[in-house]
Amino acid sequence: MHKMKIAMLTFVFVLTFGSFPIHALAMSPEEQSIYDLNVDRFNNGTRDNDKDVDLNDPSAYYGGDFVGVKERLNHIKEMKFTTVILGNVWKSSNFLGENTTSYIEVNEHYGTQEELISLVAKMQDEKLMAVADFPIDQLGDAHPIRKAHETSADGQWTIVDETLVSTMAKEIVASIDKYGWDGIRLTNTQNWDAASLESLIDLIKKEADKLIVMTLEQTEANNVDIFHNESLMQTFHDTFIQFNSGVTLYEQMQNIDRRTQLQVDRIDQLRMTYEMVELRMFPPTRWKTALTALFMLPGVPTVTYGSEIAMNGETVEEGLQMMNFKTEMELKDYIGNLNTLRQESETIRNGEFELLHNEDDFTVFARYSEDEHWIVVINNSDDTKKFSIPKERFGEDKVKLRGVLNQDLIRLTKDDQYNIIQDRERVEVYYVEEDKGYNIPYLIASIMVYAAFILFLYVVLKNSRKKRAANS
């Protein structure tokens, strides 16, 4: 069934748009879609670096490495993501990247510098943007920057001055030059003022002008390319953690900066799946509802690895499990469908956003431009909902609303309305197209194909009976 839907989507896109997805490296920051992973917990590609591995201890290393990520890039590409954050890959005290002591030396548990260079090159060959984390505060004692600048007892900088900013920029640029990063995510930024962070980013971009810069924490720095918004993430989380949540995020989206990350949880925080289960919700349904909003709203959809299998865990460490590639992956196909929609449609990525209805956990909004018109319906309640769109919305021409996720079809009624009826916890994305009535040649051709197939089965079965009769 899922493969049939994917084939249908591909067919729809070829007919509608006549193009293929644009490459990530040619996309602007706000057009990206991000997959955020932890190297140690993604895939173990070689046993050569399996040191201190204990799969029964959530605080220990699990054995994931650069070779393993490289082997599983197709998994990420099949979900159509454009950007991959590898997390903190540097020499550190644990798999979470704490007490980082270098921006050049890699964590030996993940592999070698050569393997990381090979991984980044492979990602770029596959048109995936490669991003790494760079903590800029609370570095380990052995980090060369830490040795040269004064810190408090917990490793926080006593003062962030021009010398520190300049030194740090040089170290990060050296790493970019060595490994070829397409983007960086600055972490541990919460104690940096906006002006100092802006200066750091300016110095880095002076040497790497095409680099995409994001931060893990929210900041007021104006030159960050992809913003984190803690309040918005919490609202996303609270909206979709359960049906009938009574929380709504859509009003906030009307004037959103398109470079804002859209996410429901973060790699260093508790998994949303855990809270879904605690509330006795069904995670796959909850995730489909949340993911539809993530990919159809204006902003940069960001998904934590393992969300495609509804990864769970009572703590942050337990929620960062080794990725299981053999389990049910219904959500993987669903994410791929949504990402395909977004990549194929300039309007979904950059078009206008209009909220048409938002009441009682039932939301209808439009994404539109001069070329396309989409209607997105999200029923986040436990009851069937209805909303009617007047004919005038789409001009004088008669149109039809064709659902591309569940193949719904809505036509104009006698009272000049397009009636949307959505079952509980169900979503749909409708493409608005001219209604030319029923395609008689297509229907005839379809009937002939089915008739020919039935005739073929009849002949095969008849010959099979004759053979069995002859052999008996």
UniProtKB/TrEMBL annotation:
The keyword RNA-binding does not apply. InterPro entries: Alpha-amylase-like_C, GH, GH13_cat_dom, Glyco_hydro_b. Residues 1-24 form the signal peptide. It comes from the Bacteria. SMART domains: Aamy. SUPFAM superfamilies: (Trans)glycosidases (SSF51445), Glycosyl hydrolase domain (SSF51011). The chain crosses the membrane at residues 440-461. One of its GO terms (biological process) is carbohydrate metabolic process. Residues 36-342 form the Glycosyl hydrolase family 13 catalytic domain. One of its GO terms (molecular function) is metal ion binding. Keywords: Membrane, Metal-binding, Signal, Transmembrane, Transmembrane helix. Pfam families: Alpha-amylase, Alpha-amylase_C_2. The keyword Signal applies. Its cofactor is Ca(2+). PANTHER family: ALPHA-AMYLASE 1, ALPHA-AMYLASE FAMILY MEMBER. This is Alpha-amylase. It comes from Savagea serpentis.
